[in-house]
């Protein structure tokens, strides 16, 4: 049987389900200003699915990225850490999280967390190398 690259990298992650959840989430986006709907979805370490969409504001700089909604959803539905992440644009294409959102995801990463990226599956550490994080604070969580 042919082993796909994807399976080799992470046999336990259903990336297709994650993609579908991200596309579903994207359909809830409120993006009247940019007209750039975004959806994000992730599996938690304990197997839950969390998702989010971008929510814009007339005061443009207050826009919430899809990842903001996702981490809020994570915290509101039991907390925990993220195992795998997928973000899409309106066409369903993989979208790289913006710099700020990489930091948001970093905070809640499970060890070895993976992201679907435009370069294929990558780890959180590859997407945000040498990250600042809780480990840099005097009283880490
Ligand atoms: N956006 C996200 O939701 N996540 C990202 O990682 C990149 C950008 C949203 C913010 C804004 O509503 C729209 O995409 C255009 O920047």
Overall tally of domains = 1
Strand order of the largest sheet: 2-1-3-4-5
Largest sheet: 5 strands, mixed
Secondary structure class reads alpha+beta
User: Order of helices and strands, N to C?
Assistant: HHEEHEHEEH
Percent range of helical residues: 25-40%
Strand content: 15-25%
Chemical compounds bound to the protein = tetrahydrodeoxyuridine
Q: What is the fold-level CATH name, i.e. the topology? A: Cytidine Deaminase, domain 2
Beta strands, count: 5
CATH superfamily: Cytidine Deaminase, domain 2
Q: Label the overall shape.
A: globular
Radius of gyration (Å): 15 Å
Structure description:
The protein is built from 5 helices and 5 strands. It has 141 residues and is an alpha+beta fold. The protein has one domain: Cytidine Deaminase, domain 2, CATH 3.40.140. Strands 2-1-3-4-5 form a 5-stranded mixed beta sheet. The longest helix has 12 residues, at 15-26. It is globular, with a radius of gyration of 15 Å. The N and C termini lie far apart (44 Å). Residues 1-8 have low confidence and may be disordered. The site of tetrahydrodeoxyuridine has 13 residues, from helix 3.
Keywords:
single chain, 141 residues, alpha+beta, Cytidine Deaminase, domain 2, 5-stranded mixed β-sheet, 5 helices, 29% helix, 22% strand, globular, binds tetrahydrodeoxyuridine
In short:
By secondary structure, this protein is an alpha+beta fold. The chain is built from 5 helices and 5 strands.
